Amino acid sequence: MTGVLKATLMSAGLLAVMSLGTSVAKAAPVTFSTSGTFTCAGCAGSGTNSVTFLGGMGNAVMITFTGLGSTSLNTPTGSSFGNFQIFVSGSGAIVVSGTFALTITQTVPIAGSDSFSATFSGTFNASNAGAGTVNFTVTSVSIGGVTYSLSTCLPLHLVPPASNNGITTVQGQIETAG
Question: Where are the domains of the chain?
């Protein structure tokens, strides 16, 4: 009886170790970075990661996107893809609008890049009132067997400087195929 119990326990232990090994093997390393580019008419900085909308009497709204530098993670996992930040000067309201591209540049496991497309709009003023939205029209991209998906509530709501220093984070999920 002891021999049967010992063999059963050994088999169960071996099965547990193999299962753990299998689950660890599913985790795959990925290395990527992110960047963002705004395009807008009537703004300063179109084609960069920071745009400024000017109004009369010294009123201005600046929207900046700060992407991630080289980031290495094991998938599947959640991750920030970067932050929008709003800066306001003056006292009047400024209307903002344009397009935005969030680019993922992957170096591991396979080099490549792809972008999430979006439109943005909103109204902000220096009394910290107002808000904006970023509407992503593409919510998932794949690069070399790795899928990057936005997990942020969509549309993404941009906050004024009085809320979280004007910072809104873009959250995502990263998974590998198979």
Answer: 28-176
